[in-house]
TrEMBL record:
Keyword annotations: Membrane, Transmembrane, Transmembrane helix
Protein name: MFS transporter
Record-level GO cellular component terms: plasma membrane
Topology in the lipid bilayer: Multi-pass membrane protein
One GO molecular-function entry: transmembrane transporter activity
Transmembrane as UniProt keyword: yes
Sequence intervals crossing the membrane: 21-42, 54-73, 85-111, 117-135, 147-167, 173-193, 205-224, 230-248, 269-289, 301-321, 333-353, 359-377, 415-434, 440-458
Upper lineage: Bacteria, Bacillati, Actinomycetota, Actinomycetes, Pseudonocardiales
Cell compartments where the protein resides: Cell membrane
Major subcellular site: membrane
Length: 465
């Protein structure tokens, strides 16, 4: 049994740790709920304050700001103590939510979304980064599972909260609730993170890397909104070039976002980050499931919404089961295979079966795919968090800073992969033209191919777990 697998769930809530776990989970939950609640209340918000032409930009700008902020997390933690950094992130997030709650126009709402994205990106990235400093190594895998479970909770709470308040004409209170929740979490941060590691010397500011990441995220977000497949495809090509330039720049610069170990000969980090990106990118299909359910199967919005959470529910279920596994490598190999099988099942069903049986098979395939992601994810995340640990006996501050970069990069990779997955889904739908069935077939066939590629390339990542 490896040391990473030696902890127990009881140790996660032991005295002296439950506060830290609550804080890390709570910050991630704020970011995740905001992501889902905004999508459900935005139609009501636009009806009241206008700005229909900019309907997609509240999400686009939020994601762009979050990607940039997550890229800077290691420097923030190197500059100020962990507790203070977390409080700053909560404060920025709460200020953005407050601006959204009182926004009289779309322009003001967009400003609030940018501010929220900056705070939310820090919260999401520090969730993984602070696992290293707030929990012993034996609990890193379970810490990753708890953070992922918050996304499952948000998948249920977010759309429900936004839908109920929007239906009652009180959409602003959804953002108000996030402000209140942020204040409640902030109240326990000083005591919960008081044992976190002292700050270390920050490295050079990664200006070039951050600019390239921001540009790629912006292009991907816009490409995902394009109705014309040629425009969307061109956007994906441009974003790919920017990401290649990002990798080239990261290999050559000392002011980097990713840890140096990522590009070290024989390092498994590149494969671990790569497989994580594929898993999360394929999970982006869940954003389109309610649309497919309504247009292809004729489901009502509520039923289509529940179908849409099948993958997220499977992810949480897979995480909670797999986090206790004492042999992680088989999970890292088997999880992508299960994801591929689930997405292929849905793709084949769309071609061969109709009616209620088809819907049932979709649900099974999506649930299985989510379980596959959850099976591999906590072990990949824990390995990434520790992938740049200092060499034994080195004891240098630079090595510690690299370890912080490895932790923060988990969220940066995750957010970029969400952008890629969403853009890829938009292109696939556009390839089907005006026929909803053809669009759905293109959508799931595209994601099935991506999932199969991930399964075939999982072995190098498994060797590093």
């Amino acid at each position: 049994m490896t040391s990473e697998q030696g902890g127990s769930w009881a140790q996660m809530v032991a005295p002296g740790r439950r506060g830290a776990v609550t804080v890390l989970a709570g910050g991630t939950l704020m970011f995740a709920i905001d992501t889902y609640v905004t999508a459900s209340l935005l139609p009501s918000a636009v009806a009241e304050i206008g700005g229909a032409a900019f309907y997609a930009w509240p999400t686009t700008l939020f994601l762009l700001a979050a990607v940039v902020a997550s890229s800077l997390t290691s420097r923030v933690l190197a500059t100020v103590p962990a507790a203070r950094a977390y409080l700053v992130a909560l404060a920025v997030f709460a200020i953005g939510a407050l601006v959204d709650a009182v926004a009289p126009s779309m322009a003001v709402l967009l400003v609030g979304r940018v501010v929220q994205g900056l705070g939310g990106g820090l919260l999401a990235a520090m969730g993984y980064a602070l696992i290293r400093v707030a929990l012993p190594r034996t609990l890193w895998t379970r810490g990753s599972a708890v953070i992922a479970a918050m996304w499952g909770v948000a998948l249920i709470v977010g759309p429900g909260l936004g839908g109920v308040l929007a239906g009652a004409g009180q959409w602003r209170w959804a953002f108000g609730a996030l402000v209140v929740a942020s204040l409640l979490i902030a109240a326990i941060v000083p005591s919960a993170l008081r044992r976190a590691r002292a700050p270390i010397s920050p490295g050079p500011f990664p200006v070039g890397s951050v600019l390239l990441v921001a540009a790629a995220a912006a292009v991907l977000s816009v490409a995902g909104l394009a109705a014309d497949p040629l425009v969307a495809g061109l956007g994906l090509l441009v974003a790919l070039v920017l990401l290649v330039l990002f990798v080239v720049h990261e290999r050559r610069t000392s002011a980097a976002v990713l840890p140096r170990a990522t590009f070290r000969a024989g390092s498994p980090l590149r494969w671990i980050y790569g497989l994580m990106a594929v898993l999360v990118g394929v999970a982006g299909v869940e954003a389109f499931v309610p649309l497919v359910g309504q247009q292809v199967a004729g489901l009502d919005p509520v039923a289509a919404g529940f179908l849409g959470v099948a993958l997220g529910a499977g992810w949480v279920l897979g995480e909670m089961i797999s986090a206790s596994a004492r042999r992680p490598r088989p999970r890292v190999l088997g999880g992508p295979l299960l994801l591929a099988a689930g997405t292929v099942l849905v793709a084949v069903t769309l071609v061969t079966v109709d009616g209620p049986v088809a819907v049932a098979l979709w649900a099974v395939g999506l649930l299985a795919g989510g379980v596959g992601i959850g099976t591999a994810w906590p072990h990949l995340a824990a390995s990434a968090i520790g992938g740049a640990d200092p060499e034994p006996g080195s004891g240098t501050e630079a090595d510690e800073n690299e370890a912080d970069k490895a932790s923060a990069a988990v969220t940066t990779v995750q957010m970029l992969a969400v952008s890629v997955g969403t853009a890829l889904g938009g292109v696939a739908l556009a390839l089907g033209g005006s026929d909803p069935v053809a669009s759905a077939r293109w959508l799931f066939a595209t994601f099935a191919v991506a999932a199969v590629v991930g399964a075939l390339t999982a072995r190098p990542a498994a060797r590093g777990v």
